[in-house]
């Protein structure tokens, strides 16, 4: 039996006193359990999400707690699950009655009976998530740790309280949670558990895609997402969830010519970008930036391996993948598509001489996403050759500098045509017609090419010239 340690110092939020008092009045036991306790012991600060287990009705406890609070917060109840939630002082407190669960084959929703604290701890996913701190007067603050979760916290181990085969098969979402926690906390999944995940991987099919995506997003948002993706790959889960990514794995060699392993390269890119952005969608773009390389790969005797058009194919795959994973098909998806589609553009510019017009075109096409695109390209540099590494970074520095210069001069970023279609129509006395489009386009091209500055007077002059060359006659007042 592990020693009883006391962690009163974890219970500084006043809500814990309210819970303790309410439980006393209802004559039931209550405990804070799970993530809050784990994160406190890990010194990750005091979480704002608090899970409370009542030996009895969690809903009744929540209602009682609300009555004791000055603002009587609304209690949201979920009768089917026997849980209730309330918010107070920026905290979100979930109440659940202690329970015992048994599972059937085809669902991760168990049959539930009332149980003891021990039963409730048994149904928790990992030993480090089964830690409870008592809110009862006789042992307020005592840690109840039946599975040596504290030791596993110290050893940085993820393991299940009960037989892993049963734990993962009962609720396969736990496989993803194990990998997610390993990634977030930088923990190791115990070998027996890891083997069991590999063995039970097919069970992931009963998990809704929204749940899967929640976990993928948490992995992507960690400090080092590659840890999670490598585990997903190693256990075989990634192939089931996102085969498009595992298709990138492998190095092929023909006639002594090799290409890089685009799967492991991608993971490096994601880790790189994680150092510069917390934006989930930019991280998704990094994860998917080379996705079109598997279907476009070809070997040519003279030039070796090519992936022609992979950006275009990749952008189309982004849509399919988002749809398949039930990710939103909105502006976020379009943003990821755009970054994938444009992912090689700055590289091409940096490789050649960085000309003003190429940079203007890049900024024109990327618009406000230009900085994100540059961040992606810099993260994409994974060469192990220090000279090349430096050279590529310097080239992108030049591109960035040029972007700033061109922007100051020409304001291409959110390009608005300096002469409107209406003005073109008035000038040449035109009805809506294709000539207007041709002239507008010619003005835009002249600006991007640097023939004229991005300003009204020059553009108007250019418009007249272009119109006349098309055989149009300006109205007298414009002539
Ligand atoms: P975080 O909130 O940082 O994601 P957490 O551990 O608080 O971590 P929650 O999803 O909030 O995770 O769940 C709270 C607690 O509920 C967990 O600590 C764990 O004890 C339990 N739990 C959650 N999901 C499961 C599950 N699928 N199987 C078993 N226990 C679970
Ligand atoms: Mg939580």
Describe this structure in words.
Helix content is 52%, strand content 11%. With 479 residues, the chain is α+β, with helices and mostly antiparallel strands. It has a seven-stranded mixed beta sheet with strand order 3-4-5-2-1-8-9. A two-stranded antiparallel ribbon has the order 6-7. A hairpin with an 8-residue loop joins β6 and β7. α1 crosses α3 (58-68) and α23 packs across α24. The longest helix is centred in the C-terminal third of the chain and has 25 residues, at 386-410. The model has no long low-confidence stretch (mean pLDDT 94). The structure holds adenosine-5'-triphosphate and magnesium ion. Adenosine-5'-triphosphate (ATP) binds next to β2 and α7. The site of adenosine-5'-triphosphate has 11 residues, from β2 and α7.
What multimeric state do the chains show? single chain
Note poorly predicted spans. none
Radius of gyration: 30 Å
| Distinct bound molecules | adenosine-5'-triphosphate, magnesium ion
Count of helical stretches: 24
Task: Provide the CATH architecture of the domain at 8-155.
Answer: 2-Layer Sandwich
Give a topology summary.
Elements: H1 15-26, E1 29-33, H2 35-41, E2 49-55, H3 58-68, E3 76-78, E4 83-88, E5 91-97, E6 99-102, E7 111-114, H4 117-122, E8 132-134, E9 143-144, H5 149-155, E10 157-158, H6 164-170, H7 173-185, E11 188-189, H8 191-200, H9 209-220, H10 225-235, H11 237-241, H12 243-246, E12 253-254, E13 257-258, H13 262-274, H14 280-288, H15 293-296, E14 298-300, E15 304-306, H16 310-324, H17 331-341, H18 345-351, H19 356-366, H20 370-379, H21 386-410, H22 421-428, H23 434-449, H24 456-469
Parallel strand pairs: 2-5, 10-11
Antiparallel strand pairs: 1-2, 1-8, 3-4, 4-5, 6-7, 8-9, 12-13, 14-15
Helix pairs in contact: 1-3, 6-8, 7-9, 7-10, 10-13, 13-14, 13-20, 14-17, 16-17, 18-21, 19-21, 20-21, 23-24
Bound molecules: adenosine-5'-triphosphate (ATP) and magnesium ion.
